[in-house]
Fold this protein.
Amino acid sequence: MTIDGRPPAFEPATMPRAPSIPLPRCWPRFAKSALLHAVALARAALVEIHSGFENSPLVRVRQVAKIERLSARVALLEEMTRIKDRRMALIPAAERPRYPPQDRLAT
């Protein structure tokens, strides 16, 4: 629990950001809200199912769940790197950040 008594928020690293869903402008506000709530409920159901696989007594099921989780993590990191590289390409070379030698050796 946090200081104000609410449960802690999800960590961004464990919960990838969902893509935005384009909705028609002519839809009433409550229809848009209902659709987004249905999508959120489906996502929550999938998360619950995946957590059941990760805690399964069957070793193979746990391994498959771990592989899927790590594959999703790799995809997230690749997307973050792609976005970072695209943003860095827009900055002129003379204005890009300078890294200390130990950081340059680590990459």
